Amino acid sequence: MQAFRAALPLLGYHAEVLGGGLSGYLFTRHAEVRLPTLLHIGGYDATAEELYASVGPALERGYAFAAIDGRGQGEMLYEQRVPMRPDWEAVVPGMVDALAKHPRVDPRRIVLVGPSFGGLIAPRGASGEHRLAAMIVDPGQLEMGSAVLNRLGELGRHLDDPAADSQFQSLLSVATHGLTSVRAYFRDLLRYTNQETAAAITCPS
């Protein structure tokens, strides 16, 4: 993060480190107008810095590009220790609020973008944020808990068995969700679903 921020003046775009409740960056061309803006969140183990590869193509097409760390991502996780949560319908509205106040952002033309795990949390966010002009997800995901549990094989059948804690604990490496046990982590994954909220998405997607 320090290296990326040191490089910002050398990248050839107007770039600023965002504040006001946002963790990330806003890239624009040197135009004193409000621009349609891509609100780009990352995936499960993402950082705002890694989203830079998409900045050039976005700016060439006339968009501003906001690379944002949400809860459980990048600076929010590693520096602020704010863990992941499933209800991004409570997260994205705050991001839109903060971006809409920026003098380079057109608040009527904010597009939410979510790749990878972002394809699950972005739709949750869009279900609670009806000011979005559009949403792009790659891939869109209805839920992921069942697929992850299937990958665990026999161990996945012991999700409710405290006697299996030692086996689950051996999998623990990064506490993205702010939990202290691996068994709790897999139970928590079952809360990450768009089945109840997808019908509330109103923007073109």
Characterise the protein shown here.
Helix content is 27%, strand content 20%. The protein has 205 residues and is of the alpha/beta class. The protein has one domain (2-200): Rossmann fold (3-Layer(aba) Sandwich). It is globular and about 60 Å long. It starts with a helix and ends in a 16-residue tail after the last helix. The mean pLDDT is 91.
Quick recap:
With 205 residues, the protein is α/β, with parallel strands linked by helices. Helices cover 27% and strands 20% of the residues.
| Main sheet characteristics | 6 strands, mixed
Count of beta strands: 6
Strand portion? 15-25%
Biggest sheet strand line-up = 1-2-4-3-5-6
User: Over all CA atoms, what is the radius of gyration?
Assistant: 18 Å
Cα shape: globular
Helices and strands in order:
Layout (H helix, E strand, L loop, with lengths): L1 H6 L6 E5 L4 E6 L6 E7 L13 H6 L3 E6 L4 H5 L13 H9 L4 E11 L2 H10 L6 E5 L6 H7 L13 H5 L12 H8 L16
Parallel strand pairs: 3-4, 3-5, 5-6
Antiparallel strand pairs: 1-2, 2-4
Which terms would index this structure?
6 strands; six-stranded mixed beta sheet; 8 helices; Rossmann fold; 205 residues; 27% helix; alpha/beta
